[in-house]
Design a protein that fits this description.
Number of helices: 8
Radius of gyration: 21 Å
Strand order of the largest sheet: 4-5-6-9-8-7
Helix content: 25-40%
Number of strands: 10
Low-confidence stretches: none
Strand content: 25-35%
Largest sheet: 6 strands, antiparallel
Distance between the termini: 41 Å
Order of helices and strands: HHHEEEHEHEEHHEHEEE
Mean pLDDT: 84
Shape: elongated
Structural class: alpha+beta
Length: about 240
């Protein structure tokens, strides 16, 4: 295994090994289904102790990248989807990277915009909005639970449309060009219902994203509150100095 550890580094040896393995999994060098050699053999190859190797494997098991199966050993089960923080849709980003997205609409209705949503979007309080929730899958596995409010005057929406194509694809098809959004990213523990929907355990860490978006005419387009499995998903930001 092409892993080198730096014994002079302050970074613990187990974590160096775990980082190398995580990179190999995310890059596809160790694809889903790959079986790792047993901990003793891996430790011998790298010149490490077995407890150090075991701790590296346990770290990746905890992150959902590896799984231990009786009679099979340690196996790669998942890669993590990393997404640039840009004004794009999750559906488009998944499709672009070959992650085979599909969607289940779990609720869909129209109602008068709640006061808090009307304030966030800068729309009249009596505006009719679509309210819908979608469960987004990647490679047949649940990845995100997405709740959205969209002004009903802007575009015609149906649950069937939202299940067969991405929301931003529908907007583009109706001549709507996204221009700017205010977005906040956070984290919290999953409720029991959220955990069931996302295939996690209650209290599992979730990434949160709240977004209010507008088109090139300055019209409010959506307010979204999305939840992502932290074990399968991360945001990637590029920072520049000045």
């Amino acid at each position: 295994m092409p892993i080198r550890v730096d014994r002079s580094s302050p970074v613990p040896l187990y974590f160096q090994v775990a980082q190398h393995l995580e990179h190999m999994i995310e890059s596809g060098e160790l694809p889903m289904g790959t079986r790792l050699e047993n901990e003793t053999d891996l430790a011998d190859q790298l010149g490490l102790s077995r407890p150090t190797m075991r701790r590296a494997i346990e770290y990746l098991v905890g992150r959902g990248l590896l799984i231990r199966k009786r009679g099979i050993g340690t196996q790669v089960v998942h890669t993590k989807f990393t997404r640039e923080v840009e004004l794009t849709s999750l559906y488009d980003d998944l499709a672009k990277t070959g992650r085979d997205p599909f969607t289940t609409v779990t609720s869909f209705r129209t109602e008068v915009a709640p006061e808090a949503i009307a304030v966030k979007l800068g729309i009249p309080a009596d505006t009719q909005v679509y309210v819908f929730e979608r469960l987004r899958y990647a490679d047949a596995e649940p990845l995100a639970l997405m709740h959205n409010h969209v002004p009903a005057y802007l575009v015609r929406l149906t649950p069937e449309d939202l299940e067969t194509q991405g929301f931003y694809n529908i907007l583009r098809a109706n001549g709507i060009t996204m221009r700017i959004a205010k977005q906040a990213i956070g984290a919290r523990a999953a409720t029991a219902a959220e955990a069931r929907a996302l295939g996690e355990t209650k209290g599992a860490p979730l990434l949160t994203m709240e977004r209010s978006a507008y088109d090139d005419q300055g019209r409010a387009v959506e307010h979204g509150h999305h939840l992502y499995r932290a074990s399968r998903y991360s945001f990637d930001l590029t920072l520049t100095g000045w």
